[in-house]
Specification:
Helix content: 40-55%
Number of strands: 5
Structural class: alpha/beta
Strand order of the largest sheet: 2-3-4-1-5
Distance between the termini: 73 Å
Number of domains: 2
Order of helices and strands: HHHHHEHEHHEHEHHE
Number of helices: 11
GO molecular function, one term: ATP binding
Strand content: 5-15%
CATH class of the largest domain: Alpha Beta
Low-confidence stretches: 246-252
Shape: elongated
Family: Belongs to the IS21/IS1162 putative ATP-binding protein family.
Organism: Macrococcus lamae
GO biological process, one term: DNA replication
Keywords: ATP-binding, Nucleotide-binding
CATH topology of the largest domain: Rossmann fold
Length: 252
């Protein structure tokens, strides 16, 4: 009777503490401990592992969700045969997240449709899965948000928000021109992250033409100086994925 009473008390305690996985697997672990004569400590480890595993999985899903990725394409779905100019080993090194540990940047440079955003997103997902705070945003959306914050007197708060992420992915720099005042906002963010946090950027504009994007040579050079100082540049020259199925090659 006492054993039954203790079991029910334990079950009640676990339910009260909202340890749902431990409740769910309690009978299984108790049966295992009896059959295999495992110690009390080993039994607890086995039971708590069920709870931790689910919480870790939920945490990873949450980290990926809040990162704001445009899609959930990972590196294993990237067609390196279609873009043979890309160094696959280099991409695997990025996936190790060594660049984040070293507070380094990555810049994907190339024309529209060659896979820049796919690669940036894949690395971002890997970072989020390792519980690195990660955020993806298109350049024009970032500028609009900073501009709005400035106009409403809360620029400092927004700059801190975007500075906090261990990995910030800024997509499509150069697709739309940025006026001088907005360029200053962008510079402030890049300057705050410089040598402290990692940033991945994608752009279709050669660096020599960035003064045409930011409409000010001095600001453009200051931005580039901080981005490129500790950065790996991946230049992609190849066909567009978006046109891949419209114009099949003779080999297909």
């Amino acid at each position: 009777m006492e054993t039954t009473s203790n079991y029910r008390q334990l079950l009640s305690n676990l339910e009260y503490l909202k340890l749902k996985q431990m409740v769910l697997h309690l009978d299984e672990v108790v049966d295992f401990s009896i059959t295999h004569e495992v110690s009390f400590t080993d039994c607890l480890i086995r039971l708590t592992n069920h709870e931790i595993d689910v919480r870790e999985k939920n945490m990873i899903q949450s980290m990926v969700k809040v990162a704001g990725f445009p899609f959930l394409k990972e590196m294993n779905s990237f067609d390196f045969k279609f873009q043979p100019g890309i160094n696959q080993q280099q991409m695997m090194d990025f996936m190790s997240l060594r660049f984040i540990e070293n507070q380094e940047n990555i810049v994907f440079l190339g024309p529209s449709g060659v896979g820049k955003t796919h690669l940036a997103t894949s690395i971002g997902i890997a970072a989020a899965k390792k519980r690195n705070s990660t955020y993806f945003i298109k350049c024009h959306q970032l500028i609009e948000d900073l501009r709005k914050a400035r106009n409403e007197g809360r620029l400092e708060s927004r700059l801190k928000h975007y500075t906090k992420y261990k990995l910030l992915i800024i997509d499509e720099i150069g697709y739309l021109p940025i006026d001088v005042e907005d360029a200053k906002l962008f510079f402030q963010l890049i300057d705050r992250r410089y040598e402290k946090k990692s940033t991945i950027l994608t752009t279709n504009v050669n660096f020599k033409a960035w003064d045409e994007v930011f409409l000010d040579t001095k600001i453009a050079n200051a931005i580039l100086d901080r981005i490129l100082h500790h950065a790996t540049i991946v230049s992609i020259v190849g066909p567009s994925y978006r046109l891949k199925n419209h114009f099949p090659s003779d080999k297909e």
